[in-house]
Design brief:
The protein is mainly alpha-helical. The protein is built from four helices and no strands. Helix 1 (8-43) packs across helix 2 (47-61), helix 2 crosses helix 3 and helix 2 (47-61) crosses helix 4 (83-100).
């Protein structure tokens, strides 16, 4: 082998690891996109605000965004949302509604 060349087995393993990471990222992105749609419907808000709600719930409950997204999708299908996330979800929706109000 020449200098700088990589071992084919090591390169194959590196590519397999990278492939798994990319697949997880794509799956997480799809999950978050679906949760944004659920929040749009549940909160009757535009998608950009729904993204903000998910982000706020994640940050204020110290829960990974993809986990919050999974919980929201379960909730949208009749399941339970952990109480801390439900409380923060309501607060985030209220913050959005207050921030979007305009004075006459």
């Amino acid at each position: 082998m020449t200098a700088g060349a990589t071992d084919p087995a090591q390169e194959c393993e590196r590519l397999l690891v990278e492939n798994r990471q990319l697949k997880r990222a794509v799956d997480a992105h799809a999950l978050v996109d679906q949760a944004i749609g659920a929040v749009v419907v549940l909160g009757r808000i535009p998608p950009d605000e729904a993204w903000g709600v998910l982000r706020d719930v994640s940050q204020h409950t110290n829960t990974r965004l993809r986990v919050v997204a999974a919980h929201v999708l379960e909730f949208a299908q009749g399941g339970d949302l952990p109480q801390s996330e439900l409380d923060e979800f309501r607060r985030a929706l209220d913050r959005g509604r207050i921030g979007s109000r305009t004075d006459p």
